[in-house]
Specification:
This protein is mainly beta. 0% of the residues lie in helices and 48% in strands.
């Protein structure tokens, strides 16, 4: 059964840090590009960061809004994707999701998303 389980979110003050985790199951994690996306209230989903499979060098890419502050990484032995968020700003407040990239997992004809993890940046 395909599953994505995000965790690690919380409330943090501006300038703070968090590490998000995404544990994947039901597919060959190490074969796929993976991504973190976020969705703020009333906004469309925004692609935050991507990482290629180890066979392609685990290359990373970031949205301009987070470059230099966020770091994506993967542990293929644990089927886990990470996102280290630092120098957080109130505008980083959103629900954060992981998924395959560039197209999300499809299940029964629909895009599959995990439950996400809420990040709130506020003083």
């Amino acid at each position: 059964e395909v599953q994505l389980v995000e965790s690690g979110g919380g409330m943090v003050q501006p300038g703070g840090s968090l590490r998000l985790s995404c544990t994947a199951s039901g597919f060959t994690f190490s074969s796929f590009d993976m991504s973190w996306v976020r969705q703020a209230p009333g906004q469309q989903r925004e692609l935050v960061a991507t990482v290629t499979p180890p066979g392609l060098g685990s290359r990373t890419d970031y949205a301009s809004s987070v470059k230099g502050r966020f770091t994506i990484s993967r542990d293929n032995a644990k089927n886990t994707l990470y996102l280290l968020l630092s120098s957080l700003k109130p505008e980083d407040t959103a629900v954060y999701y992981c998924n395959r990239d560039p197209r999300p997992i499809r299940l029964n004809g629909n895009d599959y998303w995990g439950q996400g993890t809420q990040v709130t940046v506020s003083s």
